[in-house]
Structures are given as structure tokens and as C-alpha cells.
TrEMBL record:
<feature type="domain" description="Transposase Helix-turn-helix">
    <location>
        <begin position="2"/>
        <end position="48"/>
    </location>
</feature>
<dbReference type="Pfam" id="PF13613">
    <property type="entry name" value="HTH_Tnp_4"/>
</dbReference>
<feature type="domain" description="DDE Tnp4">
    <location>
        <begin position="80"/>
        <end position="239"/>
    </location>
</feature>
<dbReference type="InterPro" id="IPR027806">
    <property type="entry name" value="HARBI1_dom"/>
</dbReference>
<keyword id="KW-0479">Metal-binding</keyword>
<dbReference type="GO" id="GO:0046872">
    <property type="term" value="F:metal ion binding"/>
</dbReference>
<dbReference type="Pfam" id="PF13359">
    <property type="entry name" value="DDE_Tnp_4"/>
</dbReference>
<dbReference type="InterPro" id="IPR027805">
    <property type="entry name" value="Transposase_HTH_dom"/>
</dbReference>
<protein>
    <recommendedName>
        <fullName>DDE Tnp4 domain-containing protein</fullName>
    </recommendedName>
</protein>
Length: 255
């Protein structure tokens, strides 16, 4: 089969979530050949994605592409959030316990996602079981090594990670009262931060439109690299789509 068709087959599998038998029928090859194509191209696409499509943006680049909605806020470096993808129930009891999400009441794969203010995915963590907390995933990922003194990170109030961030990195969270009434200014700031978080949620929704992430079969959970390569490839393909937030004119002049 020509290389172009092999890549097309792989992308169709990711985007449409077609079963192997359907793809085999469509391309007139055996199901074994389809599986071989997947096992060959997914790692290659993931490698290319990590090199060319998902990368940490410089402070200069972030400022040049800063959407207007961020202009009067602290200079955000990234917005972070975790998302979960439903999965089959593992046969291994220990693995099953690690993957059970009490929030979803289901077995899930959980991932940390970081996007720049303009919606560009700059980081995607490896996959964790649904039982892992946001704090644990953040602390275990290499995201912390990207953050520098003077960076601001926007997150949901559930991210209790201020004490594990590099010195000089500020964590911006929407306020919660715990029974106390907020000052009028704090209410305004909190509401604005909550609205800005919508952009990372939109990024996650875009990734979940790729149907392979509707439900992860147990066969892809057997090896950690399998699901990690799929996740990073999906995130990279989303970065090739039109911008989530329109950049100001001239934002790309540093290329």
C-alpha cells in the first residue's frame, strides 16, 4: 500500500474511530495489515508531533499572539486543566483500581493539558489512571520544568499546586469564598479568570471530537506508549486546525 494511503488510513482511524474490519474493507486489505499499519505509523506520527507540532512557546511569542481578552490581565504563560477519556475496564485488579474515576464513576484515562492564551496546545502529559489527582499528575509531569520565574499559570480552583511550582511562578485561580463574601473587585477578577479558563476547555472539546478518544479500548492500554502516542498525535493534529482564538493582526510577524 502507498505511504499516502497508510497515513490516510491511520488518520481516518483516529478521526472517525472506525473499527479495524471497516478500514480493512474500505482499503481492501486484511485486518492484520491494518493493525500493522497502526503499530508502525502511530509512533512515527507521535515523534513528528512532539518535534514540530507541540512545543513550549517563548514569552515573546506568547505576548505577540496575546488575544485581546487577556490584555488587562496578568501575563499568562499557559492555562492548564486535566481531562478524562472513558476506557475499558482492565483485567488486572490493581490497574482497574488505578483507572477508576470516582468523579466519572467509570474507568478512565486522565491527562494534563496546557494551552497558551491563544489556544495553542503547548504541553500534553502522559496518560494516568482516572484515580490520579490533578496535583499528582502535575507534580509527576515535566510541565513544571517548562515554567520559569515570572510566569503566570491559570488553572481551576481544584489545582492545589502553588507549593510545588518553581519560585517566582504565580498561580491564578478563580476565588472561592468558603463562607466569606468577596470584595467587589475580587468578584470581578474571579469572574474574568473563570471566563478565560473557557479557552482550555474549548481545546479539550476539540480533542475529544477526535473519535478515537470517545472510548479507549483495553488493547491500547496494554502498553503505556500506545495511549501516550495517540494522545500527543491527536493534540498535534488539533494544533493544525484554525486558531481557537483569533490573534491580533501582525501576531505572526516573528516567524
Amino acid at each position: 500500500m502507498p505511504v499516502e494511503d497508510q497515513i490516510l488510513l491511520t488518520l481516518m482511524w483516529l478521526r472517525m474511530g472506525l473499527v479495524i474490519a471497516n478500514l480493512a474493507f474500505h482499503f481492501r486489505i486484511s485486518t492484520a495489515a491494518v493493525s500493522h499499519i497502526f503499530s508502525f505509523w502511530i509512533p512515527h506520527l507521535a515523534r513528528l508531533t512532539r518535534k514540530y507540532l507541540i512545543f513550549w512557546l517563548s514569552t515573546k511569542r506568547i505576548r505577540m499572539s496575546l488575544p485581546d481578552v487577556f490584555r488587562n490581565m496578568p501575563p499568562m504563560t499557559c492555562i492548564i486543566d486535566c481531562f478524562e477519556v472513558y476506557s475499558d475496564r482492565p483485567q488486572n485488579l490493581l490497574r482497574r483500581g488505578q483507572m477508576f474515576s470516582f468523579y466519572r464513576s467509570h474507568n478512565t484515562v486522565k491527562v494534563l493539558d496546557a494551552v497558551a492564551p491563544n489556544g495553542f496546545v503547548t504541553f500534553i502529559s502522559k496518560a494516568y489512571g482516572g484515580r490520579a489527582s490533578d496535583r499528582y499528575i502535575t507534580a509527576s509531569s515535566v510541565l513544571l520544568y517548562h515554567l520559569e520565574d515570572g510566569n503566570d499559570v491559570l488553572a481551576d480552583r481544584g489545582f492545589t499546586i502553588a507549593d510545588i511550582l518553581t519560585i517566582g511562578v504565580e498561580l491564578a485561580l478563580p476565588s472561592f469564598t468558603k463562607g466569606k463574601q468577596l470584595a467587589a473587585r475580587d468578584v470581578v477578577v474571579s469572574r474574568r479568570l473563570a471566563k478565560l479558563r473557557i479557552h482550555v476547555e474549548r481545546s479539550i472539546r476539540r480533542m475529544k471530537c477526535v473519535r478515537i478518544l470517545n472510548h479507549v479500548p483495553s488493547s491500547y492500554l496494554a502498553k503505556q506508549n500506545n495511549i501516550d502516542d495517540i494522545l500527543v498525535t491527536v493534540a498535534g493534529l488539533c494544533n493544525l486546525q484554525s486558531a481557537l482564538i483569533k490573534e491580533p493582526q501582525g501576531a505572526g510577524s516573528d516567524e
